[in-house]
Design brief:
about 160 residues; elongated; Rna Polymerase Sigma Factor, Chain: A; mainly alpha
């Protein structure tokens, strides 16, 4: 286990720094990742590719911490269901920007893809996007909800 720690600590820490832009949060993310890895190994489960496991755990912990941060910051229950008033946060945008390169292979409709890219890449408001695409703000909210749902399904590890 020490060899895994020695080999991957710096890689995970550097990745965490890029995700959090904060030394303390990166240390917390790195430590949480290795704690989860150690707990996984204590269950004596055979692992084919240790590197895949490590990055899967790191990503899942990052996603969980980001969601928890959003909950605490907005004091609103994070919910996968669409209610027409979904509030986005900076960390959500970071997470979704990480997968922008894969967006064309996910199977989004043209309007979902355009809405998603305008919102997350161009940082446009829902109102601005609705004006550009010539549709209502509620439609844009739905396209964003639908695209996030499809992306979540694509990137959820079971």
């Amino acid at each position: 286990m020490d060899a895994v720690y020695d080999k991957y600590y710096d890689l995970i820490y550097n990745w965490a720094i890029k995700k959090t832009n904060n030394k303390e949060d990166a240390e917390d993310l790195t430590n949480s990742t290795f704690l989860a890895i150690f707990e996984y190994f204590n269950r004596n489960i055979n692992v084919d590719k240790i590197e895949n496991l490590i990055w899967k755990i790191a990503h899942n912990i990052w996603s969980t911490k980001a969601k928890n941060y959003i909950k605490e910051k907005t004091n609103v229950e994070y919910n996968d269901e669409y209610h027409g008033n979904y509030s986005e946060d900076f960390l959500d945008k970071i997470i979704y920007r990480d997968i922008i390169n894969s967006i064309d292979s996910i199977g989004l409709t043209e309007k979902e893809r355009k809405s998603f890219k305008l919102y997350y890449i161009n940082d446009l408001s829902i109102k601005e996007i609705s004006n550009i695409l010539g549709t209502t703000e509620n439609n844009i909210k739905y396209y964003l909800y639908s695209s996030r749902k499809k992306i979540r399904e694509e990137f959820t590890y079971e």
